[in-house]
Specification:
Blueprint (H helix, E strand, L loop, with lengths): L7 H4 E3 L12 E2 L4 E8 L3 H12 L4 E5 L14 E2 L7 H8 L1 H24 L7 E8 L6 H13 L5 E4 H8 L5 E10 L2 H14 L3 E4 L2 E7 L2 E6 L4 E9 L14 E10 L14 E4 L6 E4 L5 E8 L5 H22 L9 E10 L5 E5 L2 E8 L5 H16 L22
Helix pairs in contact: 2-7, 2-9, 3-4, 4-9
The chain binds flavin-adenine dinucleotide.
């Protein structure tokens, strides 16, 4: 299980296809500092937080102990889905329809917010609005998908049900059925994170090279001791450390597994599926696939819930690569099933598929921003908006849907 000391190398291995252009400059922390909001971590979560809070006029300071964006963010396949890992039906069984529908609608709004943000700031990150195709699998066939579709309609969520014939005719996928949903997107996650951090710096955020080693609350502020000695005092501290979570945030709600992904070389466009839809399956251990702006196919999955040791994970990569290539061939026989890049990473999930966002129990000035699972980046955006509202004194009861203190849910079979 990862802990607070885990480095980028512990959290991911191999090579992903993302473009490492323009690393935002950091300076050394050589003396004590005071700011209104300190963000710990400069992956996609910390970058979204920093850009939003700096834009709102806060005196923001961001620290990272390693190179920005090269943690889990660089391992992401960056499918920006609003559909949560737990189907609406399952979430309804756990929390009731109103609660589940609210969460789904917030997730839909989060992807839309990300799209607007990237367009507004013209962040060069290969961001492409897309639709997603949620494919029936052995575990969940056409009837399950139809029931899910009807529930989504009741919740006011967009999308259509495709039966076998329509799916095969339109996309060439030989599955029982699928749900086609608009309002998702894909991107280059590293460029997105770095572009946002650059925008935050332009808005006055300070970006420093430092390792947060201790957090001491004293009434209205938090003093954060760093590895090199200086202390940063802040009114609020946002924890955006990815899977390197401090002990006091560890929650029985979440667990870590491993996931693998490959990218093919660029393909000729006619070998790709229609409209570059984002693909995932109605299965617990689902396969996920997307295309890129330079016509690669990225396909991932093969998750192992028992494995979190980096050496074991890396050792499995050749075998997992072969399995993913076989699955790619079965999905899209026209494509060249060759791996140009293979990589793997720690992958977090929660029991209910929802992120951990909000105050650390008993420490109201420490705010956690931990998005998990296949919606990690969508949830990071959500975290940035909810946490900013909390800092502004506009906390709403519904934010507690993501509270670190929510009871451990009963998961239906
Ligand atoms: C194979 C794979 C595929 C994925 N696919 C998707 C997908 O398609 N869509 C999606 O939305 N999500 C996906 N995810 C999940 C997504 O990658 C994560 O949710 C996201 O990257 C987390 O970003 P982060 O900024 O929270 O963490 P990170 O990117 O890990 O950033 C955290 C930063 O905090 C820094 N840090 C940690 N501790 C300290 C400290 N004490 N002091 C200073 N700095 C510190 C680290 O150095 C790091 O740079 C995938 C993940 C994997 C592994």
């Amino acid at each position: 299980m990862p802990d607070a000391s885990d480095t980028h190398e512990d959290l991911r291995g191999g090579r992903s296809p993302w473009n490492a252009a323009h690393e935002p400059p950091r300076r050394r922390l050589d003396k004590d500092l005071r700011c209104s909001v300190l963000i710990v971590g400069a992956g996609i979560t910390g970058s979204l937080m920093a850009q939003h809070l700096a834009e709102q006029g806060h005196d923001v300071c961001v620290i990272d102990r390693e190179r920005p964006g090269l943690g889990s963010t660089a391992a992401s396949t960056a499918m920006l889905l609003w559909e949560i890992d737990k189907p609406l039906k399952t979430l309804t069984e756990i929390y009731g329809f109103e609660h589940a529908a609210r969460v789904y609608r917030q997730s839909l709004a989060a992807v839309s917010g990300l799209k607007d943000l990237v367009a507004l700031h013209r962040i060069p990150c290969a961001f492409r609005p897309r639709s997603s195709l949620y494919l029936a699998a052995a575990e969940h066939g056409a009837q399950t998908l139809l029931a899910e579709h009807e529930l989504r309609q009741r919740a006011g969520l967009p999308g259509v049900f495709l039966d076998h014939r329509t799916l095969l005719g339109k996309y060439g996928f030989d599955r029982e059925a699928a749900l086609l949903s608009p309002g998702v997107a894909d991107t280059d996650p590293l460029c997105l994170a770095r572009g946002l951090m650059t925008a935050a710096i332009a808005r006055g955020a300070a970006f420093l090279d430092a390792d947060a080693v201790r957090y001491e609350d004293s009434g209205k502020t938090v003093a954060v001791a760093t590895g090199d000695g200086p202390t940063i005092e802040a009114d609020w501290v946002v924890l955006a450390t990815g899977y390197a979570m401090p002990d006091f945030v560890q929650s029985p709600l979440h667990s870590i597994s491993s996931s693998w992904a490959i990218a093919t070389p660029p393909q000729s466009p006619e070998k790709l599926w229609r409209d570059g839809v984002l693909i995932w399956e109605a299965a617990t251990d689902y396969l996920y696939a997307r295309t890129t702006i330079d016509h690669r196919i990225i396909i991932g999955g093969e998750d192992d819930t028992e494995m979190s040791d980096p050496d074991e994970r890396n050792a499995q990569t050749p075998k997992k690569t072969d399995v993913l290539l076989t699955k790619l061939h079965a999905l899209q026989p026209a494509a060249d099933a060759v791996a140009d890049k293979s990589w793997s990473g720690a992958f977090g999930q929660t029991r209910d598929g929802l992120p951990l966002i909000g105050a650390v129990p008993g420490r109201p000035r420490l705010l956690a921003a931990y998005g998990y699972g296949g919606n990690g980046i969508t949830f990071s955006y959500l975290a940035s908006r909810l946490i900013a509202a909390t800092i502004a004194g506009r906390h709403r009861a519904e934010y507690d849907d993501y509270s670190l203190e929510r009871p451990l849910p009963e998961i239906p079979d």
